[in-house]
Design goal:
This protein is α/β, with parallel strands linked by helices. It folds into two domains: about 100 residues, ATPase, nucleotide binding domain (Nucleotidyltransferase, domain 5, 2-Layer Sandwich), CATH 3.30.420.40; about 160 residues, Nucleotidyltransferase, domain 5. It has eight helices and 13 strands. A hairpin with a 3-residue loop joins strand 7 and strand 8.
Length: about 270
């Protein structure tokens, strides 16, 4: 059996690969820095039925751990390579051709996949962590499930200005209901928006920002595929923003199944080489 662990800022993802190739995934909240006790705790949470032959580590401060653990060899995998390998494997996109991988986690990273190499080419500190932080300040909650439920019940038009609110006609190919000013409506109305509309506005702000950066990077590097992986409360909005942008640009968005553990999978793939 081979193990991989991705130490994220918010969540730790681990994979166990059995000798028959079957994968077992486990997730837990990230509440302390990596150490041997934490890894043993993670291993105890996995249903391990075979001897562990190898452990691959990536993300966060994975280098806190040495090159062996309980006599088991440990490989440290660069996070960019781990995200890239995992995203390409899950999406099935040809990694010899230019594509942009968007890792939507606590922040947002953009990775160029080209000629079988992965290069960090852009990103932003805005991401899922921003959603949680702003929600804590504005809604007095940082619970992703509660934020998501509020957002589904809300309407971004309660806080945002759209194009038809600020100009008399369309702008280029942008639909008239495209966001013109995030939270721009709030300063123009006397009544404060509902908690639901605020939640929807926060997620819209973060999702659209990540999508704009991803599409700009794709155009810069002439990539025709954008692969989105990671675990973030903005994921649904990021999907809709990218799909809308795809209608007016020449790229194809991919949202592979199991994208939440792409980095752990990439570390496992590299560790097996």
């Amino acid at each position: 059996m081979r193990i991989s662990i991705d130490f994220g800022i918010t969540v730790i993802d681990s994979l166990a690969q059995e000798s028959n190739g079957n994968l077992q995934h486990h997730m837990m909240l990230s509440e302390r820095e990596p150490d041997e006790l934490l890894i043993n705790e993670i291993l105890n949470n996995l249903d391990i039925k075979e001897d562990i032959k190898h452990i691959s580590l990536t993300g966060g401060k994975h280098k806190n751990i040495g090159n062996s653990l309980n006599g088991i060899p440990v490989t440290h995998v660069n996070e960019v390579d781990a995200i890239g390998e995992g995203a390409v494997r899950l999406s099935g996109v040809d990694k010899s051709k230019p594509s942009i991988i968007v890792s939507a986690g606590s922040g947002t990273a953009c990775i160029l996949s080209k000629d079988n190499e992965f290069i960090h080419c852009s990103g932003t500190g805005i991401g899922g962590g921003t959603v949680l932080g702003l929600s804590k300040l504005l809604l007095n909650t940082s619970d992703p499930e509660e934020i998501g439920l509020l957002a589904k019940q809300g309407n971004t038009n309660g806080v945002d200005l759209i194009i038809e609110d600020v100009v008399s006609g369309p702008i280029g190919l942008l639909p008239k209901d495209t966001t013109a000013v995030n939270f721009g409506r709030v300063s123009k109305t006397k009544e404060l928006p509902s908690r639901e509309d605020i939640a929807a506005g926060i997620i819209n702000l973060v999702g659209q920002t990540a999508a704009r950066i991803a599409t700009s990077v794709a155009l810069t590097y002439q990539a025709t595929d954008i692969i989105v992986v990671g675990r973030t409360p903005t994921f649904d909005n990021l999907r809709s923003s990218l799909e809308q942008a795809a209608l007016i640009t020449n790229f194809t968005p991919h949202f592979p199944k199991n994208g939440e553990y792409a980095s752990a999978l990439g570390a496992l793939i590299i560790g097996n080489k």
